[in-house]
Amino acid sequence: MEINTRHNTPTLLIKRFFFFAVVTIGLSLLPLLLLFISMHAYQPKTVRRISAAERITSQAKDVDVSDYIADGGSAMIVGKDLKVTLLGGNPIWNKAAFSEEEWTHFLIDIDGMNGYQYDIAYQSGSDGYWLVMRKPVAVTISLALFFNPEAEDFIAVFIRFLLPFSAYFVAVAAFVIHFSKRTANEMKAREELLHSEEEKRMLLVSEISHDLKTPLASVQGYSEMLLSKDVDIQKQREYLQSIHDNSVRSNNILRSLFTYSKLGSAGFKPNTERTDICEYTRQIIAEYIPVFEEKGFGYELAVPENELIVSIDKELFRRVYDNLIENALKYNAAGTKIMIGVENKESSVEITIADNGIGIPAEYTDKIFLPFFRADIASSNRDGSGLGLAIVRQIVTLHAGDISYTGDEGGCRWLIIITKDK
């Protein structure tokens, strides 16, 4: 299987880093962008505003600002002698005149006077004057940043200014690195999971092809023999029996494969109902007693008389019992004892299905729930599909339970744990 090298971890990390960097910085700037849009989304229609420079006349007394005053503004004349004449509106300066120092600071500080918009023009004639117009604004955003290395404390102030911004960008970088790395790792894990699932699918196809090859070849071979030459009645019956047996085996394999695939699909859910697991177990064992006696198997049942309620899909969960009991019957000799027990725990129910037969070799116990694995691979007993225990584990898992093998070569012991209903 070819792996896409464009999705390796370093490449994903770089891509995720830039992605999260752009997103984080974008989110940081988003409030400013939204503010800009909201401030400019609606612009009421107004008449053209006349600037202070357009209102200047040769004589200060002829300046007309009546429309500006009516629109909520204020205006004043500042003569060459720095005396103040209010033309209307709220006072801009609360004194009758400016000193030279006050006037200088006033002109310098205009940009920092938040909440107001200023418009100033100068008439440079013999009777020169300044026209100062001011109007309040609802919101003012002002950002003025100047650096003057000539200041004595420039370095100390600059460092104090730089520290918050440095901390911000370090935090952003750490956030971006963490989440980009985390995302890259998640994507790598997802890729590995897909690769693993693909390998499982390929293995499943390989195993099912191998298991179907023998019975189908037998069906084809015997049917060709029946068609190609005269065969006596006895041989016909033998060939037809072999065709029938191999057809049944093939059908069982395909049915097991269908069940295994269905149980593993994402949308499958068991049809559970509240069930007394004790009575449910007794009913199943009652059906097997004639089989035990016919095959010469002993049995022992340890099930409480009181109710133990669990939520199970009764039809589906029956397959768990059937598979484990039939395995004990298939692989053990007559005289073997099969033990079935149900035990009440604080929040769960433990179901035990065990026997004192040949058991499973220790080297196989970590593989017994894998699809198509058979511990009897060296023997001639290959009638099963190799999916039985894998299906059992799927069913128990779908019931939010757990199944484990705790036997040894002196016998098998299967422990199933499911949660009790409250």
Number of domains: 3
Gap between N and C termini? 48 Å
* Second-tier CATH architecture of the largest domain: 2-Layer Sandwich
Report the strand count. Answer: 11
Sheet with most strands: strand arrangement: 6-8-9-11-10
CATH class category of the largest domain: Alpha Beta
Architecture overview:
By secondary structure, the protein is of the alpha+beta class. It has 3 domains: 52-136; 194-264, Signal transduction histidine kinase, dimerisation/phosphotransfer (DHp) domain (Helix Hairpins); 273-419, 2-Layer Sandwich (Heat Shock Protein 90). 49% of the residues lie in helices and 16% in strands. The chain contains 9 helices and 11 strands. It has helices spanning 9-41, 52-55, 66-70, 100-109, 154-228, 233-264, 277-295, 314-331, 388-398, and strands at residues 74-79, 84-88, 116-123, 129-136, 273-276, 298-302, 309-312, 337-344, 348-355, 402-405, 413-419. The strands form 3 sheets. It has a 5-stranded mixed beta sheet, covered by helices on one side. Strand 8 (337-344) and strand 9 (348-355) form a beta hairpin. Helix 8 runs antiparallel to helix 9 (388-398). The model is unreliable at 1-6 and 377-382 (pLDDT under 50).
What's a concise summary of this model?
With 422 residues, this protein is of the alpha+beta class.
Jot down its keywords.
five-stranded mixed β-sheet, 11 strands, 3 domains, rod-shaped, 422 residues, Helix Hairpins, Heat Shock Protein 90
Helices and strands, with pairings:
Layout: H1 9-41, H2 52-55, H3 66-70, E1 74-79, E2 84-88, H4 100-109, E3 116-123, E4 129-136, H5 154-228, H6 233-264, E5 273-276, H7 277-295, E6 298-302, E7 309-312, H8 314-331, E8 337-344, E9 348-355, H9 388-398, E10 402-405, E11 413-419
